[in-house]
Amino acid sequence: MDWRRIEVMDEAMAEVLRRKTPAERIAIGFGLWRSAQKLLRGQLASLHPDWDANRLEHEVARRLSHGAA
Questions:
Q1: How far is it, in rounded angstroms, from Cα 36 to Cα 49?
Q2: 40, exposed or middle or buried, with CB in 10 Å at 0-12, 13-18, 19+?
Q3: DSSP assigned state of 20
């Protein structure tokens, strides 16, 4: 494996995903999205305890949309 190309999926994992239905793959993607939001929200809350919930949500959205929010 070429460690400079970390985006290359392991063949065993690719086979697992091939066996999933489209709905199952979408559900996996949404779960990953929710996890990213939760982790980022927690990180930001610990770094900025003075931010209210609205500010946290805005910053989470901004970061996950690559600044487009």
A1: 19
A2: middle
A3: S
